[in-house]
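Researcher: I'm preparing a figure for a lab meeting and need a structural model of a single chain. I don't have an experimental structure, so a prediction will have to do for now. The sequence is pasted below. Please return the structure as tokens so I can convert it later.
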Amino acid sequence: MSNLDYARSQMALSLAFHIIFATAGVGMPLLMAISEGLYLRTKRTVYLDLTKRWAKGTAILFAVGAVSGTVLSFELGLLWPSFMEHAGAIIGMPFSLEGFAFFTEAIFLGLFLYGWNRLPPLVHWFSGLMVAASGILSAIFVVTANAWMNAPAGFVYNQGKFSAIDPIAAMLNPASLHEAVHMTLASFVATGFLVAGIHAYFLLRNRQSEFHRSAFFLGALVAGVSIPLQLASGDLAARQVARLQPAKLAAMEAHYHTQTHAPFVIGGIPNDAAGETSYALKIPAALSLLLGHSPSTEVTGLDRIARDQWPNVGLVHLSFDLMVGCGMVMLALASGHGFLAWRRRLLPTDRWLLQAFVLATPLGFVAIEAGWMVTELGRQPWIIYGVMRTRDAVTPMPGLVYPFWTISVVYAVLSLIVVVLLRRQFVETAPVVPLPAPVAVSSSVA
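Model: Understood. Here is the structure written out token by token.
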């Protein structure tokens, strides 16, 4: 592997690791705040116990996310000095704002963790809401910086020089809205299915546990509300990608030839040399309908993109199919759960349904990882789309193999520590509280 390969691999590893904790850091505080709000309204101690346990879990995830995020910030400067030399002044604002959001989240998380019986109940709940809001804002600010790399704006580029820099315009670039909405909803979906799946596993072992039943209900509720909104945001994102990054859209769909009535390509093996995708399922005119709401919409293919500007079509297409496939499975499961709850007016805990949620536990995070592969691989060979190539931004320092393996070992150790801590927190000490009565679910909530 070349120095560039090791730099890209290290960045990919760091992003793949950090994004798990970043998204959980967005979703868990929301569940925590909802649970405490239900406790204040109903006075049911099970919601208080859930809130306290989720707060401790949030603190663990927050700490590891802070460590991995710090590593990423150093890697930007150490691995990609040419990129930071030119882009630092342009995207410095969202990173600075993310720092403010991060410290705000840390302050209110501290108040939440140590404010039990010291703060008035509503003030304590407000601190939890601020943790959730700060986590969401922190993620949004980082995503706007990534969106700028996909749709650069707010500067004039001439002969390798950046001038007339407008950081506000850069932050509010054409890709920032759909990326921020899509990522925020993805965090809610992934965390909701993770929580629902974990507690569905324990419900299979003990159907009478009010603790696990209530936790399963809240996780399934957040996931069920978020997943249809996520698919709608994905539809918006696809149209924006087609407009801003036609090469990425063409790679996502393994779409080699510019045409109207373009089919939606599912699966298959892309062949760049032949310009076709073998063994794929093709839905006639579906891609044209998706992008322009008309079968006569022309969709740009890779034949209109210079060959040296193609992304890795095979990996981008596979990642896109994996992301969409996970989303459709989660939508079907959430819809089935919601329908049963509406029909029965009770929280359904059928064995087959709980087993399905257990199997779906990691799907949200698999979809997030696949989606980020689409975002990052689909932008290649550019680090700043249409402006700076990735190979021109990498550090000239040799020996990047050593930090790559060092970081790999550090992340492996951190992963083990997190698993052990969360197991002790949620598995070994989870209370077994008998269910006093069936949990009714109103039709409006279902």
